[in-house]
Task: structure prediction
Amino acid sequence: LPAIATVIGSGTMGPGIAATLVRAGAQVRVYDISAEARARAESSFAFASTVLDQLDSAKTEGGSVSFTSDIAEALSGSLFVIEAVPEQIELKKKVLAQIEGLVADDVIIATNTSGIPITAMAESMTVPARFVGMHWSNPPHLIPMIEVIPGESTDQAVTDQLVEIVKAFGYHPVLEKEIAGFVENRVLYAILRECVALLEEGIVTAEGLDTCVKWGIGYKLSVIGPTRLLDMAGMDIYAAVSGYLNKELDASTETPKVITDMIAAGKLGFKSEGGMYEYGPGEVDAKRRDIVAGLVAARKTLSSIA
Ligand code: NAD
Result:
């Protein structure tokens, strides 16, 4: 693991990323342009660290964190940089130019983009060979899987090094070719498209859908994985079912009306205390706590059998 690492941008993702690296023994510097975001990041970092304690995940001594308003200070001596600023290509290009101006040519720069093509982002870089996609899954301190996505100009040695870095802090790297949305979100959005269509057609209630997917699919897939599931079911069975079912599945290419209607009505989910479900006072916080507790318990169990 690089001894000194920098996280640029500390909103939803940055603090958990930093906490994970610190736990693995890195000296992590966190930079954010906003003073308010930096203050919030310090408490999110502390919370993520307590979650890592609950996980009993391996801890390497020597880790430390500092939050700074000075990007030069954040990057001074850094050996590995993770960019986690908002998902806007022009902003990311600007920030990458700033980073490149402050680190040596052999420092790896990784981006946590959710889907902007790595090749497009690298276009205006001076040393695009050291640039690579590193897609963490939210919450980053809890989901131990990272997609590694080289762009057209990424050096193979850089990709290999990132795979080793991810292993060094105990996560599972998944090497992918560049594709819109990357693999995790493509699979997730295929599931969500069908889920929203089933709700829209009134086939099942939100509660029913959640129960079906959590216990019928999520529980099973968290142990087996889709390709092993195909082996378990048998290709003949998959062919028989997909032969009549695939053409029935939702294939719409636009955002579903039920979702755009909810946005128009101000129903955004947790952030507006109402979405698919309604939340009374304090209920969103309670739900968030339940989710973290559930993820901690499930990860402990799954790690013990994987
Ligand atoms: P966010 O908006 O919560 O946080 C981004 C932070 O970057 C903010 O605190 C903002 O102040 C800061 N920032 C803005 N301009 C900056 C600049 N010029 N220099 C330094 N900091 C700057 O965003 P997020 O959800 O943490 O996402 C960050 C990246 O991670 C995005 O590319 C996003 O697509 C990706 N990502 C997000 C998730 C998720 O679930 N939120 C999951 C995986 C990947």
